[in-house]
Amino acid sequence: MREISCLGLKLLDMEAEAIADLLAARPASAPFAYLVTPNADHFVRLRQSPALKSVYLAAHWRCLDSRAIALAGRWLGLTLPRVATGADILAILLDRYLRDGDRLTVIGLCSGGLAALQHRRPTIDIAHHEPPKGLLHDPNAFEAARAFASSHPARFTLLALGSPVQEMLGQAIASGEDATGVGLCIGAGLDFWLGRKPRAPRLLRRMGAEWLFRLTCEPERLWKRYLVDDWAILRFLVDERRQCREDKRLN
User: Where are the domains positioned within the chain?
Assistant: First the structure.
């Protein structure tokens, strides 16, 4: 697997389809391993809370889920990995690789989403657990979610809790000795696949403007993230370019 460093993390330099193929090839009986898909919001949070970095380093697979970062990095002359969004990887796995009778464990989807999933894929065996909100502040609920995933082994375990809860849960599941299969930290990926949330048109995605589309859909929830917090990513990329130039000068 070819990896390229990006803002302190080594990320897969592969398209979404190739990553989906890689995940699907892992035996369901193999020890639990999870995928994280950091975007601008994740990288900003990692700078604010460096202790979270171990959660991402513990992931078996990491890929870049931000075309905005890729475009800004290219403009700055950085060599960054190819973009592979979690939503695209998930869609390929569910459409191409999830077979009739397969077990799918889902942590975090609401009851309405579960009904939509069962309607769309009635021939798969779905194990579902919906933890309460504030999971990080409720050790008993967090442990219950971890135990549910471990006691319901599946080919794919979808952690749909939002970041950083889902990544921390993925690490906790992987730390146990009894969990198997592939875990995906997918955020709203299932809602996109089910059509419960609209995705940006393909052209906007290619332009790195999916964030703008999502902002227009959920302005109250996302305005601060996209218009205030995430702009720090530009400073991080400029710092990375400066460090790369310094490394080249010294070598």
Answer: 15-60+85-219
